[in-house]
């Protein structure tokens, strides 16, 4: 009568010994390597495919996000003046970056020191940020930086990476969330986008270029970031979504020297901005 093994007991024999710890480690390494390769491919595809996504797709995504900020925004002379400054920058953008676009600023009367570009061609400027700028030039640098995110399609790049990574992991691990959960998470990611240090540097580069084209010089390009650097808490730069302000200042100063940009006189903030701070 054959001996029955308890349920769940492996039926190993001398001919089929259990896997060794070394073999298990090799299998685990291969599995993790597969995940790493899948994520790397997703990142590469996201960068390659983002340029084929029509502008209207990004604007449709914005319809789910812009109303959230529009409800907080203040329709005022401050917002109108910010849009006038943005229009001046926009005239120097290549035609490919303005076709089908309708760039606008939403001014949010909140003490948050931040500015962000969101899908739907909108730039959010917080009152807290305006309180930190001392000249029109440095404000234009901030606005030009945000236009740089649109030019580089950073929002769609981040969204594409998230979707492709989820799909890659789903193919390796099984069900990793429904399309509904992916879409919901993606909208959340778009509305609170944090870009890589490389993306931030590319946006700074366009901001500097636009600043020079508007004024014929780059005075004020580093002022805002230099001021921020004095109040930043120390931390690991590699973990930050934005480069540390001191590093941004160094990068901009190096770029200014490389391009041979001159530094002229700064223009004061328009009255409509100073009177609302």
From TrEMBL:
GO terms for cellular component: membrane. The keyword 4Fe-4S does not apply. It comes from the Bacteria. One of its GO terms (biological process) is proteolysis involved in protein catabolic process. Residues 85-254 form the Peptidase M48 domain. Keywords: Hydrolase, Membrane, Metal-binding, Metalloprotease, Protease, Transmembrane, Transmembrane helix, Zinc. InterPro entries: Mito/Outer_Membr_Metalloprot, Peptidase_M48. GO terms for molecular function: metal ion binding; metalloendopeptidase activity. This is Peptidase M48. It comes from Adonisia turfae CCMR0081.
């Amino acid at each position: 009568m054959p001996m029955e093994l308890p349920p769940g007991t492996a039926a190993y024999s001398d001919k089929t010994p259990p896997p060794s710890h070394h073999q298990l480690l090799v299998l685990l390494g291969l599995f993790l390597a597969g995940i790493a390769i899948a994520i790397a491919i997703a990142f590469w595809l996201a960068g390659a495919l983002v340029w084929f996504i029509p502008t209207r797709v990004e604007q449709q995504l914005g319809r789910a996000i812009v109303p959230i900020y529009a409800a907080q925004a203040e329709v005022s002379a401050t917002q109108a003046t910010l849009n006038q400054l943005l229009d001046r920058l926009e005239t120097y953008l290549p035609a490919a970056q303005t076709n089908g676009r309708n760039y606008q600023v939403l001014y949010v009367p909140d003490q948050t020191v931040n500015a962000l570009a969101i899908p739907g061609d909108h730039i959010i400027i917080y009152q807290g940020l305006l309180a930190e700028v001392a000249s029109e030039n440095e404000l234009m640098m901030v606005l030009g930086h945000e236009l740089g995110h649109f030019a580089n399609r950073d929002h769609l790049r981040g969204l594409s990476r998230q979707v492709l990574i989820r799909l890659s992991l789903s193919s390796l691990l099984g069900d990793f969330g429904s399309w509904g959960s992916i879409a919901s998470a993606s909208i959340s990611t778009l509305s609170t986008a944090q870009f890589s240090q490389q993306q931030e540097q590319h946006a700074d580069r366009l901001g500097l270029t636009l600043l020079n084209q508007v004024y014929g010089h780059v005075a004020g390009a580093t002022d805002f970031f230099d001021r921020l650097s004095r109040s930043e808490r120390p931390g690991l730069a590699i973990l930050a979504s934005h480069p540390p302000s001191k590093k941004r200042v160094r990068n901009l100063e190096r770029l200014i020297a490389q391009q041979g940009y001159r530094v002229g006189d700064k223009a004061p903030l328009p009255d409509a901005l100073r009177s609302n701070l």
